[in-house]
Specification:
heterodimer; A: 190 residues; mainly alpha; 4 helices; B: 174 residues; alpha+beta; Alpha-Beta Plaits; four-stranded antiparallel β-sheet; 26% helix
């Protein structure tokens, strides 16, 4: 006699077994079979709440975007109050005529010096431009292609960085003390 | 009668402009509306001249950098180079601490303020650019750091106040 099983697939399946005889249902703790009525209500309220929230956020965003962006105030141009509050006035001694004469003559010498400096600068610029124009003219006579290439702008020129000159050269073998820099700039928010 | 009933004043008639009086009143100054800070269009320039170029001067010394910026501006005016804007960037403050030789505590050495001035020019021709650079470099004072670069939107944005609330909302929305 061969025993023909009625089910087509006799796969070893895990049958839920009750842990103890106190467990009345086959389902695990804190679970229940899905009940039809309640979840729909929850979904509706959730969607509405979400939509209301989104609209509120959009309104807030619109209001914030309407406000124009502001420039950060420059501390250099704001005089600290302590310099304008006090009433102390400096009293300068009267100048002797020799002293005032000396000062006027010094001012004139300074004006002359600055004028010479300015003229030298103007002359230098003029000389540079003239020599450049002459060179370009000669280049043009030589070859048109090179002239065109010279006229074009230099992409490698910018960005251009240069530190100002220093009073003295760096000391050889100088050992600086250890330390650190902390940035304490005031952060402005709108 | 149609002709007599019409009361249009013709320009040829001596009664033209009769009844006008607003031209006699003093001119009203229009109300000053707060100008919105908007980014002006950045010029990219062509092959023969550069667009918007920023000349940024940075230094610890305020007077020096201020006077150098004025000098550069006047120079550009004299050489008929168009100056778009001449403004100051926000001041940065740094606290410098150094380690004492004998102790292990950091001691406050100084509080340094870094000032930056920017002169923005437009339409610098490619042949004149090296000459201008040479002149500015020759008169660069000590301690002033010079930087010349093309103007970008990021440069403009760095002048504006940060808006964390707006950014937060934008992050939440997307």
């Amino acid at each position: 006699l061969c025993y023909i099983s009625p089910c087509s697939s006799w796969l070893p399946q895990r049958v839920p077994l009750r842990e103890s005889h106190w467990q009345s249902s086959l389902l695990e703790l804190r679970t229940s079979l899905p009940v039809r009525a309640q979840p729909k209500k929850k979904k509706k309220v959730d969607v509405k709440k979400e939509q209301a929230q989104k609209e509120r956020m959009k309104k807030k965003l619109k209001k914030l975007e309407k406000a124009a962006p502001e420039l950060i105030p420059i501390e250099d141009f704001i005089t600290p109050l302590k310099y304008s509050e006090s009433n102390r006035v400096r009293s300068l001694p009267a100048l002797s005529p020799e002293e005032s004469e000396r000062r006027v003559l010094l001012l004139k010498k300074w004006c002359l010096f600055k004028q010479k400096q300015d003229e030298a600068e103007k002359k230098a610029i003029k000389g540079l431009v003239e020599s450049q124009q002459e060179a370009l003219k000669e280049l043009r006579l030589e070859s048109e292609e090179l002239y065109e290439a010279a006229i074009r702008r230099d992409e490698g020129l910018f960005p251009f960085e240069r530190d100002g000159p220093s009073y003295t050269p760096p000391l050889p073998g100088y050992d600086p003390p250890e330390g650190k820099c902390i940035d304490i700039t005031k952060v402005y928010t709108q | 009668n149609v002709l007599l009933g019409c009361h249009r004043s013709y320009r040829s008639r001596p009664t033209h402009g009769i009844g006008k009086f607003k031209y006699l009143l003093p001119k009203e100054v229009p109300k000053k509306r707060k100008e919105k800070v908007q980014m002006k269009e950045i010029d990219a320039g062509t092959e023969y001249h550069y667009g918007d170029v920023n000349i940024q001067m940075t230094s610890y010394d305020l007077c020096l950098v201020e006077h150098f910026a004025q000098y550069v501006h006047r120079l550009c005016n004299r050489l008929s180079i168009r100056v778009n804007e001449s403004y100051a960037m926000p001041t940065k403050t740094n606290e410098v601490l150094f380690m004492e030789e004998k102790g292990s505590k950091m001691q406050l050495d100084a509080v340094l303020t870094t000032h930056q001035r920017v002169v923005q020019i437009r339409g610098l021709s490619s042949t004149f650019a090296p000459i201008l650079l040479e002149i500015i470099q020759s008169s660069q004072p000590e301690g002033v750091h010079l930087l010349m670069k093309q103007h970008t939107e990021a440069d403009f944005k760095s002048r504006l106040k940060s808006r964390p609330e707006l950014e937060e909302l934008l992050a939440e929305m997307s």
